[in-house]
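Reopening this ticket.

The earlier resolution said the output was attached, but the attachment link was broken on my side. Pasting everything inline this time so it's all in one place.
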Amino acid sequence: MTKLKYKFTNDILCKILFVQHPSLLKRLVANLLKINLESITEFIITNPEMPPEIMGDKFCRLDINMIVDGQRVDLEIQVSDEGDYPERSLYYWAREYSTAIGEGEEYINLPRTIIISIVGFKIFDCVEFHSEFHALEVTRHTQLTDKFVMHYFELPKVPKTITKDDELRLWLSLFNSETDEELKEIEALEVPVMKQVISAYRSITADEKFKELERLRSRTRHNEASALGHARREATKVEREKWHGVVAEKDAQIAELLARLGENK
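Inline output:
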């Protein structure tokens, strides 16, 4: 088995690939949202820029923001489980939604805002790999508004078997692929869009500009991990010293009390 050096979940790779090939992104989004591709009349990537200087920024996000027939759609790809993704994705939704109108505009003009999260870990206690959330009343299930939509696609739950007739599963299998053999298995199905996206993948990952961006991004991730690790160690050290101080103080108080008891005998 030949391990892929760059998986499809690589944020730089996805950003470059889908900005360069918006028709592929449009097709992916249509599958993820289960809407007819031909019905989409407006499709705009609103943050196509990826200046090299931001790659060195701490905790830089390379999400893809779109307008799809008047709706705001944000595609997030999260590989590692940092323990707070539901809350973080809700924050992403709130930020997208709250910035959709200008000062003085009516709230009724706020657009339907959809967050699509493709994650490399399990979030929910269920067997389904796709979960969709709306704002509903808890007993009657009456919808509060149609402007809140959250989609989560949990890659570890996606079945390993693939078929050319299930394009959504093929897309998710691409994101799940870890070896070149798995990509070739998808290519062998002779699905035109899959061959197109894999060809684009091979072209981008062979490009020196991409490799340089990935080196910079990787170095930034290592720096972030080191900084967080150092902060945790320092916090643990402070807490440990604080605890030792409390214990020492209590020991001193006990010793003093015992001494007083001895004097009173």
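Reporter confirms the inline version is readable. The longest strand covers residues 143-154. The chain has a mean pLDDT of 88.
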